[in-house]
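Structure in, sequence out. Go:
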């Protein structure tokens, strides 16, 4: 694959990066995303943040190999510590991690005043989308776009969020399924939730057999099972 080509998953993320954005890509193993965006002339400046030495060095090598040291700064840092307000970043990508980790990176970034609140967030959690959407909604972000896709037999979701003047309020079902994905109900979406339903039914059976006091957990699993059944049933 050429350096200006991305995997289908990262290409979808790239599509949501605004033209000429000042981008921070957090967790930027190999800096594939910022390198492709600069080579394709979508952006002229990016920070590639990495917390682990190996991927940090791989990102540095990729940037140097493509002669992009003037456009991409690779920074060794934990999460949004790679970014300062004076960098005037207006788009942040955090991809290929769990939703809870992405949430914690954003929450810590907010606490450390590394987020101005005006950045467009383009997030690609591998799991834990519900927890991430819950945080975004609680922080007054509006989800402005979502995608679900299959890449190398894995299903991924992309969530785009921004702070708008009148933030949208979400129903719990929208936080679970994703407001746009729920509305669209694509084939990939329905297959994902059919698989999740099968998994949760097994979890419920195991919980019912356990001796521990897990009433709250069972209630939560049953609620989710009911919502999934409703969505799948309405889509028939
Ligand atoms: N973003 C790339 C992608 O989507 O293909 C790489 C994904 S890779 C699975 C996750 C990367 O995030 C790893 O290189 C890991 O070291 C990095 N990472 C995990 N936690 C991080 C944090 N708190 N700050 C910066 N990078 C982090």
């Amino acid at each position: 694959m050429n350096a200006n080509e991305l995997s289908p998953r990262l290409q979808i993320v790239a599509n949501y990066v605004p033209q000429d954005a000042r981008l921070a890509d957090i967790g930027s193993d190999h800096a594939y995303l910022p390198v492709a965006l600069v080579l394709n002339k979508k952006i002229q400046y990016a920070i590639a943040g990495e917390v682990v030495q190996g991927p940090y060095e791989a990102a540095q090598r990729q940037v140097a190999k493509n002669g992009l040291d003037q456009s991409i700064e690779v920074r060794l840092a934990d999460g949004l510590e790679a970014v300062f307000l004076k960098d005037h970043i207006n788009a942040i990508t955090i991809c290929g991690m769990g939703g809870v980790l992405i949430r914690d990176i954003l929450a810590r970034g907010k606490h450390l005043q590394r987020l101005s609140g005006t950045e467009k967030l383009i997030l690609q959690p591998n799991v834990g989308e519900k927890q991430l959407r819950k945080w975004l909604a609680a922080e007054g972000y509006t989800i402005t776009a979502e995608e679900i896709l299959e890449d190398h037999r894995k299903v991924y979701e992309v969530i785009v969020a921004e702070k708008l003047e009148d933030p949208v309020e979400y129903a719990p079902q929208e936080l679970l399924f994703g407001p746009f994905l729920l509305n669209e109900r694509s084939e990939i979406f329905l297959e994902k939730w059919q698989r999740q339903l099968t998994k949760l039914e097994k979890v419920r059976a195991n919980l019912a057999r356990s001796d521990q006091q897990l009433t709250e957990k069972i209630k939560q699993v049953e609620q989710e099972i009911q919502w999934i059944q409703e969505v799948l049933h309405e889509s028939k």
